[in-house]
Amino acid sequence: MKKIIALKNWVSNAWKEGIIVKNSSIPKYSSWFISVYAITLWPFVFIKDEGNPITIRHEKIHLRQQREVFVLGIIFFYLLYVLFWFINLCRFRNSELAYMAIPFEREAYQNEDDEEYLENRKWLAWTRYIRENDYRKSNFS
């Protein structure tokens, strides 16, 4: 019975907080178009090294975004992500600008310094970044 409760708690925590994998080689292998320091593939967050609170918060925003589209299928998030990137690539003709203009990234970068953002974040908050056409409004630090 204790094992079942422990498993239930682990699954619940993975659903809410994700599973952080530090010192991972996954980001290196994901660096096709831009250099990747960390990547979120629900429910995992893979970080090149030990990471830092800002990076972990940024990636947890992506976990929340992925959970929101989970109802449609987790693959839907990745399809949307690539679609936004491709549209932006055609628009800017620059892969880094295309990445920075993805609504999911804009939300994460703009709010990664706010320690209370995830507690106060509204459902589907990333969708407002679709309507904001000017990607330069975001803070890309």
What does it look like?
By secondary structure, the chain is mostly helical. It has one domain. Helix content is 55%, strand content 8%. The chain is built from 8 helices and 3 strands, in the order αβαββαααααα. It has helices at 2-17, 26-29, 53-68, 74-92, 95-100, 103-111, 117-120, 128-131, and strands at residues 19-21, 38-41, 44-47. The protein has a 3-stranded mixed sheet with strand order 1-3-2. Helix 3 (53-68) packs across helix 6. It is globular.
Number of strands: 3
Runs in which pLDDT lies below 50 for 5 or more consecutive residues are 137-141
Shape: globular
Please give the radius of gyration in angstroms.
16 Å
Structural class: mainly alpha
- Percent in helix: 55-70%
CA distance, first residue to last residue = 48 Å
Order of helical and strand elements: HEHEEHHHHHH
Binned strand content: 5-15%
Strand sequence of the main sheet, in spatial order? 1-3-2
Report the average pLDDT across residues: 87
Count of DSSP helices? 8
Largest sheet: 3 strands, mixed
| Count of structural domains | 1
List key phrases describing it:
single chain, 141 residues, mainly alpha, three-stranded mixed β-sheet, 8 helices, 55% helix, disordered C terminus
